[in-house]
Design brief:
The protein is of the alpha+beta class. 28% of the residues lie in helices and 18% in strands. Among the domains are: 46 residues, Uridine Diphospho-n-acetylenolpyruvylglucosamine Reductase, domain 2; 91 residues, Enolase-like, domain 1, CATH 3.30.390. It starts with a strand and ends with a helix. It holds the Pfam family FAD_binding_5.
Length: 316
Amino acid sequence: MRAFTYERAASPADAAGAIATRQGAKFIAGGTNLLDLMKLEIETPTHLVDVQDLGLDDIEETEDGGLRIGTLVTNTALAAHPRVRRDYGVLTRAIVAGASGQLRNKATTGGNLLQRTRCPYFYDPNMPCNKRKPGSGCAAIAGASRQLGVIGTSDKCIATYPGDMAVAMRLLDAVVETVKSNGETRAIPIADFHRLWGDTPHIETVLEPDELITAVTLPRPLGGTHLYHKVRDRRSYAFALVSVAAVIQPDGTGRVAFGGVAPRPWRVEAADALLPQGAKAVVDRAFADARPTEDNAFKIPLAERTLAGVIAEARS
C-alpha cells in the first residue's frame, strides 16, 4: 500500500471541497472495497477524505410515501429496517444475499453502489486491463470469462458490476442524490447512474470527481411479491453468476432486473411487459443484444431458469 494523507470531513460540502482541491483524493466510508484495492495498488489515492462523521445515516419517510436512505446507512441497518422489510422486501433479500455479516456491518449504501468489478484480470496488476490501466487491453476477452458479462459489454471490457443491493434498487427505480463542491445537488435515476463500458471502461458512473453521494431515495412501494434469487458457485460469500430481482403482482404482471450479467444492474423495461408470457419471453427480450463468450454463454439459459423459479415461487 502506498503512503497517503487522511482527514475527517465535518460536512458534505467540506468533504466535496476537500476532494476538489486535492489531486488524487478519494472519499472513504466503510472502506470494504477501497482498502482491498489500495493493498493491491489498484487504487492509489494520495489523500483520503473520511465521510463517516457527516451524519448521513438516517432512514426517513418521504412526503410521497417512499423512503430516503442516507448514504452512510450500513447494509445491515438497511436490510433490517422495518419499512424496508415490509414494503421493499426485494431490497432486504438482495442485501442479505451479498457478502458476509461482518462486511454488511461496515459497508454503506453509497459505497455499495460504487463497488468495483471482481474481474480477475482487474485484480491482477500483471495483466492488461483497460479498466485498471486505460489503453492496455482486455485480457478477459480471450481469457477465462466464465464470471464475466454477456450484455452491455464492449470490445474494451467485459467485466460485470458485482453488487446485489443495486440490482434491487434498479428494480425499484431508486434515485441517487449527490452534492458537489460548489454546493450544486443532483438527483440521478439509478438507471442512469452506472455507465456501460464503451471505450472508457475505467469511468464506471456518471459521478464527477468532487461529487459525493448523500442519499438514495426509493419511490412509494409497488406492492406485490418481492423475490431475489442468486445463483453462485458456492452457497455463501460469493458473487453472482446470475441474480434475478423481481416484484410480481397477483395477476402475473410485474418487473424484473438481473445481476451478474452486465456492467450495471440489467433491466429492460420492455421485457417487464412480457412477464405474463413466462421466463423465456422475458429473457429473450432482455438479452436480445447479448454477446456472450464461449465460457459464459450458459448465463443466458441460467437467467431463464432462475427467473422461472422466481415466477413459480411467486405463484405458490
